[in-house]
Write a structure and sequence with these properties.
727 residues; alpha+beta; Beta-galactosidase, Chain A, domain 5; TIM Barrel; 3 domains; 10-stranded antiparallel β-sheet; 39 strands; globular; disordered N terminus
Amino acid sequence: MKRLIPLLAAVLLAACSHPVAPPQPRAELASPDGALRMEFSLDEAGTPFYSLSRQGTAVLLPSRLGFALRGTVKAEQLAEDNAGRIIKSDAVPGIAFDCGFELAGTDTDAFDEVWEPVWGEESRIRNHYNELLVHLRQPDSGRLLDIRFRLFDDGLGFRYEFPGGQSLVHFVIQEELTEFAMADDCTAWWIPGDYDTQEYEYNRTLLSEVAEHFQDKMRGNSSQTPFSTSGVQTSLQMKTPDGLYVNIHEAALVDYPCMHLLVDGEKHSLRAWLTPDAEGWKGNLTAPCKTPWRTVQVAVSATDQLASRLVLNLNEPCALEDVSWIHPVKYMGVWWEMIAGAGSWAYTDAVGIHLDEFDYTAATPNGRHSANNARVRTYIDFAAEHGFDALLIEGWNIGWEEWANCNKDYVFDFQTPYPDFDIDALNAYAHKKGIRLVMHHETSSSIRNYERHLEAAYSLMNRYGYDAVKSGYVGDILPQGLHHYSQWMINHYQYCITEAARHHIMVNAHEAVRPTGLCRTYPNLIGNESAMGTEYQAFGGITPGHTAILPFTRLNGGPMDYTPGIFEQNLKDWCGNDSYVNSTIGGQLGLYVTMYSPLQMAADTPAHYSRFMDAFQFIKDVAVDWSESRYLYAEPMEYIVAARKAKGTGQWFCGGVTDGQARTFEIRLDFLEPGSYEATIYADAPDAHFKTNPQAYAITKQNVTPDSVIPVTMAPGGGFGISFRKL
């Protein structure tokens, strides 16, 4: 059976065939404002379905629910129905958990609260929904399944709950069969399904066109995902022909594999596809337990989609009693010069290193190691002079000579510095200057090794006053056969977050699973990468428009450490790298407003910023924690214009980014409180262009009121930033 699952992994499992007859019985649920309606039903085969509409227009057609569980099924006992789906032979008991149900009862509830996040895009978030809890029972097996639906004004969340005290106790998921049957052939912004990375540029196609684009996009992907048809990742942003914005994602991903989506372009339907373990199974559970929420956000405009907090609201309230140590961070780092190729993480060029035997003090330095005492002091001085909070230093610790994809269990100890990095002296120097250092833990995906050293590494951070860590998971996962998004790794990420909280440490995880709103429950999860970020500007460049889709997709589940602020676009002239940063300086400034994160980096070097200190002023001034956010204009992968009010000071900032087209917007300032303001406008110059003139910008000032309108033109690949000072 262990060898059967990979063979089944490419097809849609169905444990029961079902007739087309109208489903009975039914239960309905309406959103608080009445615009959205959800219907639950069982068909004549006892298969559960749900559907969703907005003001009478179908969003989701009846969509199947349920599971296929591991059983004693053999290949010769499987057959295909006339729709090409796998069905269970009557001779094989115990595998179907998607049919044969009867409705044992329903419960309804309503909830309305306003909660205050520790940090966020606003200081108060309303959590308002109506709830339907459906109790199902399989008379033949005695097994129980509950499905909990929560309908908000901006969408639907639902999850499966497996009650205790029943015959189903320890079980293994073979497939989750949840469907999202779209009513129309929607425009979709998607990246390929990959079990190990989200680091792709987005595609814009109809659902019916995904398949023809899919194979080219998946060539060379590291996970060798066994999709025989098209698979995409969540958060999946779509737009219906009628202009509704529909987004499918998941919330509160804990102790469960990450969900991808299989696309049936002909039927415009999507089906949950869980990340497998090393044997191909999709989850090991013990009742009582529950799955993550499956989310379907529905908005009438792109700006409403960006303002949705449904994913956050479906997570549990903060689990930490004391959050006084958690704080937003604006930081710099010894990072970009190594990404671009001007420096090195490694101290030597040695190979075949065994850390318990290698003598770094006797080794020959390569002369390119960036995390050296003199270089780090230069960064500390610059960061302190310009009001930053912290400095990230990568490559400080031994082991970088052989790290990613070397299949080494023992790679780093996360405690021992290289000979040219005096951790005691540099830490004392940073604290004297008012700068905290940010620890870097690159695990090289050797998970057992990281967990082996985690307590000592966090304790070292406590000893030196480091209160934030950037963790990394580059390379294939060890133990071999696991994936970055399988259940075992989901539990590892959660373990690191909870252990970090015990040590009062904030976590910024790179290459980890995409966020699903867990930052509400664990606000020390202050940042994630989990998408193609600025580093790819040094790996061949990123197409303009990428930063105008990420807030709709990747950021739907939580903030991103995108690392903006690159002012030197020509990397070849700087360090010989043939890549090019496809953005104007104005576009880089706009990201500090449009790309929300409580952890914001000024990613370029002190030398580059020193050439553009007037533009750098916006990065120094812009806040990283907000009490209010307004999305003024938006269209996925084209443009975003946002305004935000800083928490504490009440100062407003506005910013925008665009794709490869020049765009002009009238910025109405009715978000300002009554009074007069000085607006400082950092805009692309008239002749700016991301490719031909990226460093051309103009800074102007004017007095404004809430009745004023500021016209702003963004160059191709450009953007703008505006700061408002109350007069």
